[in-house]
Amino acid sequence: MHSVKTRDIAALGEAMLEFNQTQAEPPLYLQGFGGDTSNAAIAAARAGARVAYLSRLGTDRWGDRLLDLWQRENVDTTSILRDAQAATGIYFVSHDAQGHHFSYARAGSAASRMQASDLTQHWSEAVAHSHWLHLSGISLAISASACDTTFTAMQHARSVGTRVAFDSNLRLSLWPLARAQACISHAVSLCDLFLPSLEDMTALTGLSQAQDIIAWSHAQGAAQVVLKLGADGAMASDGFKVHGVSGHSVQCVDATGAGDCFAGNLLTRLAAGDDLSVATTYANAAAALSVQGYGAVAPLPTREAVLQLLAHPSKAITP
Questions:
Q1: In whole angstroms, what is the distance from residue 305 CA to residue 315 CA?
Q2: Which helix (H) or strand (E) holds 53?
Q3: Residue 239, SS3?
Q4: What is the pLDDT of residues 42-92, one digit of tens each?
Q5: Reduced to 3 DSSP states, what percent helix, strand and coil does the chain have, rounded to the nearest 5?
Q6: Domain parsing of the chain, residue ranges
């Protein structure tokens, strides 16, 4: 039975405090916020979508700060559960010539303690009343119970006519490759839209050609696939036609949340009625803008900034 959709996106996963390195010696870190699906939810809200976030937080000050953030960003927090027995997760981002690197302090975090019963008791209506449910490979990786919760949410979404978007977001520091391969393959079979990156899919499948990765994704069951190619743009496929989008020439400062920005903006435009190729072009521009500042959240662009870049693609515009 399909439910009335009063919201564009419900995102489920783990949000964390972020400390992002801005200077090597002496080391300085900028405090911000992160967590892939939370970043995507905020990106979508800034783009004009009606968004809710589904997660667990500790009852600590960091959890309070995240709630304040979502409320400032117009993300619905009525489905946030507080866990007095566990802390809110934290991560650190460092930078060098090879790019950005993550270190985590999240073991046993409140979000990793989410249960399938959280979905049935607290989150089922939020999923049912949304056009899209957004999840990621990190939601599968942080614990066995979070993995179960993610699959339960995907199955519930399908039963109530909510479309499912799944971002691969592979973090092999969180789980063994064999388990990641099995769980992500199953997740792709349950989603309507798969959002892999080239790097993730090469690690997962051994495939390195975009067309092969798109074919693999459709073979697993995803009706729509948008392959993120970083600075080279993206490729979108509906199973019949592949649409390529070129990257934008911008000054990259920190790419920490670029893929999440892409996901949130893509889902916003799909919920608004854009077709896949138009939505991908928009999301690609938003992601290009998001790499021009430090942190996963602070540089996320507004709709006005994205439209400006699309109107003048030769200019590198600060969001």
A1: 12
A2: strand 51-58
A3: coil
A4: 999 999 999 999 999 999 999 999 999 999 999 999 999 999 999 999 989
A5: 40, 25, 35
A6: 7-311
Q: Rounded to 10 degrees, what is the CA torsion of 101, 168, 249, 291?
A: -50
For residue 94, what pLDDT is reported? 87
Reduced to 3 states, what is the DSSP secondary structure of residue 112?
Answer: helix
Give bridge partners of residue 112 from the DSSP assignment.
none
| Third-level CATH fold of 7-311 | UDP-N-acetylmuramoyl-L-alanine:D-glutamate ligase (3.40.1190)
- Between CA 81 and CA 268 the distance in angstroms is 25
The share of the chain scoring above pLDDT 70, in percent, equals: 95
What digits encode the pLDDT tens for the residues 163-186? 999 999 999 989 999 999 999 999
Residue 176 CA to residue 267 CA, distance in Å, equals 30
Of 31, 273, 13, 19, the closest CA to residue 131 belongs to 273
Terminal C-alpha separation, the chain: 41
**pLDDT tens across 96-155, in order?**
888 778 888 888 999 999 999 999 999 999 999 999 999 999 999 999 999 999 999 999
Alpha-carbon distance values, 284 to 91, 110, 208, 264, 266 (Å): 26, 32, 21, 11, 8
Closest to 224 measured CA to CA, from 286, 161, 266: 266
Please, are residues 26 and 289 in contact by the beta-carbon 8 Å criterion? no
pLDDT mean over 230-257: 83
How many Cα atoms are found within 13 Å in the side-chain-facing hemisphere of 142? Answer: 31
Residue tagged 């500042």 (tokens)? 293
What does DSSP say about strands 7-12 and 51-58: parallel, antiparallel, or unpaired?
A: parallel
